[in-house]
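Protein 1 of 2
SEQ + STRUCT:
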Amino acid sequence: MSPPTDLSGLTRSELEAEVTALRGEVAELKRLIAGLRDEIARFKGLKGRPSIKPSGMQDATEPRRGGKRGKRRGRGVVTPRVAPVTEVLRVAAPKGSKFRGYEPYQVQDLVLTARVVRYRRERWLTPLGETLVAPLPEGIRGHFGPELRRFVLMQYHEGQVTVERLVRLLQAAGVSISKRQVMRLLIAGQDEFLAEGREVLRAGLESAAWITVDDTGARHRGANAVCMQIGNDTFAWFGTTGSKSRLNFLELLRAGHTDYVVNDAALDYMREYALAGPVIQLLAAHERRQFADQAAWQDHLQRLGISALQVAPDPARVATEGALWGAVAEHGFLNEAVIVSDDAGQFNVGEHGLCWIHAERLVHKLETFTDQHYAAQQHVRGLIWWYYADLKAYCADPTSRRRSELRARFDRIFLHTTGFATLDRLLQRLHANKAELLMVLDHPKIPLHTNGSENDIRCQVTKRQVSGGTRTDIGRDCRDAFLGLGKTCKKLCVSFWDYLGARLGVAGAPAVPRLANLIRCRGQPA
């Protein structure tokens, strides 16, 4: 259906009919586009978008605001982040008029123009035969200035603009630049930002009382990969690996270190994951406990004969995971901190808590076939929602009495028999995770969900949809680092624009402290 060319002659009812038909066509187009995206994801081997509607448990269990609901607040006065420039506008008043002051009117604008500076650098020949050349101004690296570099980084990472569109935008503004030069601005010479990204992760893991983790699909060098998120309310960090194994997760938790350590934490990990006693004794009795890199550690396992063992679970893998966990503890990371996840197996290390939103989602998405099944499902969901609201209240005011009551009530809910066999098996499975779901009773400060991680990692999903995958390791590392730094700046209430200006040496940019120092200050107890 195509709308008529002239709408002025239509009646109100005819216009409403046209709008209704157009809205139906838009909805159908959105449905078709979503289907095509899922089909493309399936061809690439990636997960499609889940068709599960959110349950609403988090919002529904928020305490209601007291008092009467007043009128909706307006936008208020716009306060610019930059100092305004005052200009006086005059008007020709008739003779005999009285001056009544000024009427303020504020306008925000943006000046975007290309600027080319040709520096004439003095050259001198010293009596010793050396040539002296006047240095370039601070912040100048290469043939593109710091303001241009900041704009490119901001548009690509924060604005999610593709390289092709960024090239066209710059060329339209008068900048003589190619796609290859834009790529160099994005990935070449970014060692300082990569180093600060590692500092952010180390500071976050050192000071965190808890972290939440999540992962999503990624593409690197034309193959499927996994991007993992680690963070809390003060920092966010991303790392892309080849798979979502626990080995890869533990390697990321070392925050750039490459060592393997056999200490008490490592040995406890090996015992927890059922490594044979003689193998543990062999590792514990050896005089060498620390290894610089993977090659040295693998050589050690071969010398002890552990790599040749053909049993399940694989002794070499469990021992390697334990040595990685030992290195995490050796560097002071995650000291008694709780890791909150969505029950993915690779994140189940150390003190581990589970997300209640994902647990309730299992009940929410359960298929029902009869009215009795549906009634049982809704009854159990109501009990879980009620219990979740009381967990929130406990976190705000924890007491030992309420802790005992909540533990007993958890058993009554998840050991309840409904007569719906599939639901009963699911409740038993959730009850088996009691210690992890009720981790919040012993640590009231940890979140009950991983919504923070899901919100953080959304930028990686958008980047994957907009720009596809990465082709080089340095491109992958820069993408992860800048997206993580941008999220960290937002959590620390630091303007990412100001942060880039301070690090790139933009003239007049405000000073921004090292993000790691801000994270450590935020993580210290009051």
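Protein 2 of 2
SEQ + STRUCT:
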Amino acid sequence: MTSSPFYAHSLQNRPETDWEDLEQHLYEVARLASGFASAFNATEWGRLAGLWHDLGKFRPEFQARLRGSGESVEHAGLGAALARSKHKTAGIPLAFAIAGHHAGLANLASSEEGGRRPLIERLDQNTKILTGLLAAIPSDLSAQTLPPLPDHLRDSRSLELWTRFLFSCLVDADYLATASFYSPGVRAVVGEGIDTIPVLRQRLDDALDRLREDLPEERRGSPVNRRRDEVLAACRAQAELPPGVFSLTVPTGGGKTLSAMAFVLRHAEVNGLRRVVVAIPYTSIIEQNAAVYRAALGSANVLEHHSGIDPLAAEERDREAETRRRLAAENWDAPVVVTTNVQLFESLFAASPSRCRKLHNLAGSVLLLDEAQMLPVGYLLPVLEVLRELVASYRCTVVLTTATQPALARRDSLPAGLEEVHEIVPDPAALARDLARVEPVWPEPGAGPMPYEDLARELAAHERVLAIVHRRKDARRLAEQLPEEGRFHLSALMCPAHRSERLAEISARLKVDGAVCRLVSTQLIEAGVDVDFPVVYRCLGGLDSLAQAAGRCNREGRLPGRGRVVFFRAETPPPPGLPNRGLQITESLLRESRARGEEFRLDDTANYEAFFRHLYFASELDAHGIQPLRKELCFESVARRVRLIDSGARPVIVPWGSAEERLEAIRRQGPDRFRLRALQPFVVNLFPWSVSKLQNAGALEEVADGILALSSAFHGLYDPRFGLLLDDDEPQPDPARLIV
């Protein structure tokens, strides 16, 4: 490597001798990127991405900019143009990665409205500049040649995923090298206290042994605990198999959370895999699962990454730990990562540098998809294809865990399904029967909707009961008709901090003998939330949702007999789309079962297989047209369309807890990423028409650009029992709050 007068980065008020030498930067990024890319056998490609990513900084105009010219200079496109000049097709993945390492991945030949210029257009423009610059670029850089593309790149969609992984390697390497120059040693804290996979496996085994030893003698040999032991033993035995696709079908109460972790850690140890990534559908259960993992494995080894984390509260608890978590979350640099389906799958189809940066760390990892029945139906084809590709070409293992296993195996009606799925538990059907803890009560044939007035009377007859309805408005209507003593309500019209407080209060009350606890909730209670009621009422809906509701009944198996789950037809239909389709399929399966003279059982795994087969057959599995866009290498278009949560909803900050204090910080200092994330626990997401209604009434304040909060005069619209009150009438301010 020769010395040069060219620089990659400057330092304000420091002599040029302290600036970062450009060639040194290129070789350091190449070293890091090649190491990252080695995890998926693309070492040389990663090296070239690093060597060429900043070739445009050899331009005199860029060096003048470092010295204060203020001129905007294109620098990422030069290395991309060089890559294409080496080979018009094989150079395209490298060109994508280099051209996008600051702005993000573009489309190949088309553009989104208001989006990035197509790659081809940038390459054509930069090829002319490159011709005049080649003499200034050291020959040991420009003379490099492209290796052959990997054999597994069978089509353009496999090339698309590989390009995104290569992009991830370059982005992370560039971030790390630049951070090391400006802030040497800043990331050293990330590695503090981190243990190896074998150490974590042993630690978990020890923790599981202690849990069993701590059980009273009479409970160790109970039928439930014997079955839990069998599940754990099966997980340990099957972990010896080579990487692939596995399913762990275990009913509620079967010890799935820790047994699944025992499988993935042992499997990772045996097969030399690097980390475990646990993806969960909802933030409501991530915290409880992450807490279980931290207790067993040690806090430093478990990275929790999702939007529900309160950064201010985390800093108050442990500033150093929160700093370490934030740094590790940038690239998932931890042995165990606990995140959401949204974070995982949107990143796998992302185009921005920050979202893609962590992807290379998925190679050689175990992906544990908890509550696998919640995989997004409208994105199922692209998701399944990427999962297959990760297993086939990136040395990943995928584990699907649930009590209601979806029908994801390849078949004639689902040719894109997963192949060679290994079930970890020898006989899931027998396990489901043995661990059945509830007796379902189905509505009579031809029975109409149950009026909420009648339902409220039935609920009031129980001291402890949970009722689950489709809609937020229904939850409030039903709860208002219950006696006030021990009455609780949960819905998405309550902000996450409010819901967490209520859940803690509900859990505490359920542990007090004789305490009344009647809870009315929407479906959010079904996502693995750890509550245990003797009686549950659930409006009829999709069979997977009904099973999840039943999992909140007699969850710990403490009742002398089985719990009671009563299904009823609601006054209002479920929301259109998937919920309504699920209800229709369940009704059809019920009719078929009755026509055969058979009892329709929740503990029959064949019913769930039938339900999901019908659901997938009746649904559009690539509802947003992702697969054709991937085929055309339209990275930006794909990223814009992959939104697992409806992007039409708008967040509104509500007055709960410290929300007003955090809003005031934004009013005084303006928004930044940290202050915006600090508002997440106090957000209620509303449909556009609800936002318009509140705005027309003057009930919303725009605290900063696009940040809406319930204005002070309308704080009375946020009720401590029911959350945000959205009635059909126009919202009215609280007169007392208008007095200055």
